[in-house]
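Form 7-S
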Amino acid sequence: MNRSQDGLANEYAGLIDGQSPGTLFVTDARGNILISNEFTALTIGIPLEELLKYNVQDLVKAGYYSDSVTMKAIGAKKKVSMVIRTVQGFNVMSTATPILNQDGEVQLVVTSSNSYPGEAVREETPPSPNAKPRRGAVRLDPDTASGIIAESLAMKQIIQVCNQIASYDSKVLILGESGTGKEIIAKYIHRKSARWNGPFIPVNCAAIPVDSFEYELFGREPQATGRADGKKGLVELAAGGVLFLDEIAEMPLDMQAKLLHVLESSELRRIGGTEPIPVHCRVVCATNRDLWSMVQQGQFREDLYYRINVIPIHIPPLRSRKPDLVGLTSSFIAHFNAAYGKRYMLGADEFQRILDQPWHGNARELRNYIERLVITGSVQSDERSGEEGLNDAFALDHFISRNRGRTGSLKDFAAIAEGRYIKQMLAECGGNAAEAAKRLGVDRSVVYRKLKKMEEVLGD
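Output:
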């Protein structure tokens, strides 16, 4: 079985719903891992592709886990829950649920965790009840993390940094390619800070005409003739909140000097004004350019660079964050299906094309692409043939997301996992059902029955 390919399509079963990350194992009756996810691999510090080659007993022997709740459930033939300590220091509350056949024998075991205490601490130092989750333990509250997909380790670390710095007024410089979500991160910092009820004022420095910069940022006093044409600048309007200076690299050099003075003195003067006005806002800047190279070329002020670069946050491109790529794809499909009343589902070939694309426009480009797919795509979930549905790389994830909480869905989940495993074995045997049945240790009639069962579940 090509476990790395099969695992890639299913590794998001515990993450795709936007909840906090959880571990996931689906094993056979001997403890061989059939399906797992990225976060499970993260907790023991090995690649997912490597993890999918293991038996859970071997993981215990190698010291990756303190014990195996999966093997205990196989032995007891009933659900077992216990805290498992990993080599990376995670204490994971795991529950293993065996799936029994008609003879009462274990067929599959689904082992998962929906929450965990986080990184372990020494026994002589009890964890504080207010301790924040650490590595891998990012919890994204729906009201504060809207629009953020943080399934990759890189994005989880970024969210952790944002959580740590949000309560301070230190200046932040967000770096990343166009479309990586710099403004979304800036808004997240705003919402998590004590300034959450203040304004969030975004300023696209690339969109302001050169001769209007000072007027837009600092405003203007009423004319001496008495006309009421005075105006507050964007910096003033951000009082009590966050001023987000996007594309800061596009700010003219003369305005950079004036902005530097405002940041250093925490006050400004409107055009035509003489009295200083206090500045009461947090400044977050962002750029998709290499500011330090611009400093060396004389295109950006060095003193301003150091002033705004107190806390740098670099967002990697989407092509280097495959977990986020799949999470965003699923999220966008769900969004546009709801927005346009569609029931589009991503096929295996299209999914592979998405994985292979460089996405130079990052999440913005991906969003537009998915919107186009949903609007123009002809493949609908209720129109697919059985074979096409079985080859759908998102079939299992879709089934899980739409059947949460429904009685009997765990057995249906097992049916899908078994069916996909059998299909892979058939492919390895060149379609020879007798040979596949022999390798699987079952009668040939079982192969056909399991495939039919999976087709019925997916066609539900």
